[in-house]
Structure formats: C-alpha cells, structure tokens
Amino acid sequence: MNNLVALTGAGMSAESGLRTFRDSDGLWEEHSIYDVATPEAWAKNPGLVLRFYNQRRLQLAQATPNQGHYALLELEAYFKVDIITQNVDDLHERAGSSHVLHLHGELNKARGEHHPDIYFDVTAKEINPGDLCPKGSQLRPHVVWFGEDVPMMDAAVSLVQKADVLLIIGTSLNVYPAAGLVHAVKPRVPIYVLDPNAVPAGKQAVYIQDTAANGMKTVTEMLLRAFAE
Asked: What's this model's pTM, rounded to 2 decimal places?
C-alpha cells in the first residue's frame, strides 16, 4: 500500500466555517496576528489572548467536518494516509482520520506557560488568568504562535520523506517552515495541489484549482487512476 501524505491548511477548515489569518484582510475574527498570535501579544495582554482563543474554541465546538475531511478518510481504503495539518482544529479527527500530525498545535489543548511538555484537554472550556498547570505556571493555548519554534517539524519532514505521493490541500505555502515541507519529498514523487489559488509547489506538481470540499472528488479519481493496485 502506497504512503500518501496530505498537507492541509486554512482552506480545508474555511469550508467548515472557521476563519483564519489567511483571509484577505489579514485578520482573524477582526484581530491582527500581532494582537493575539505572538509571544509579544501574550506578554503584553494575556487576558485578550486567552479570551480570543476561548472564543475560537467555542466556535470550533459548533463546526463540523466537511466533504474534504471525509474524502481524506475514504482514501485510507487505498493508501496509508498521514495527515500533516497546519490547522489547530480537530476536524480531521472528528471525520475519522487515523493519523493526524498537528504542526501548529491544537486549539482544544492547553499547556503551562513555562512547561510546554505538560498539556491538557480543554475542549469547549475556557482558560482564564490564574488557571495554572500542576507545576505552577499560567495555562496558555497549546498552539504555535508566529515567531515560536515548531516542535513537530522534524516529525513532519520524516513523514514527507517517506511519501509515495504528496497531496497539498488548502494552503498557500507562504508560511515557513511548513511551506518547506514540499521540498522534503523524494525525487519524482508526484505532488497534487488542491487550492483555488496559485500555489508555488514546483513544476512537477499537478494543480487542481478548486476548493477543498469540491475538488477532492477530482483528486481522488486522479489518485486512484495513478495508483490503483
């Protein structure tokens, strides 16, 4: 069974009604990156950051997976599927996908401000100032903010290096280091890119200019023709 690695981004979640900073105005629910998604924002106004992510968590609880998520699950019947997602939601898991690596953390988890290796499930819960981890540091969202290291990057690179086919869905490939994953594939590994916009994935890539939900039917048909065993 061939290894299929899917790299998913904001375009996948957008069709479930979840806005992100990828929107054309550079805002996420009317907030700038610099107000709610950097270490500097946390140091300046942790209360605002916590309120922002509390609202996103409640919003996520009301969202549901879309056809793009379910199409990736269906591909598990034909491929060994590993999903590397830049999204912090849990919609891939709720659709039933078996192997999901969250490159930028998980919205439904919290960790100690000074103890990043201790994290907790906070699904549909609030994190408030004064909420502490067992070692005594303030709880913060278990997400990777702009300017922070990406701890799961090495694991993601390892998965891409083992891929027999790379599928890129709903990501502009403009945010690094995640965008660099496309260069980790072995030579001659086919790359399929599903996005309504032009994405810089290289000359060897096959482009399907459509949304994640609508375009996955076409992508699935292409994959099965190319890799049917």
From this structure: 0.93
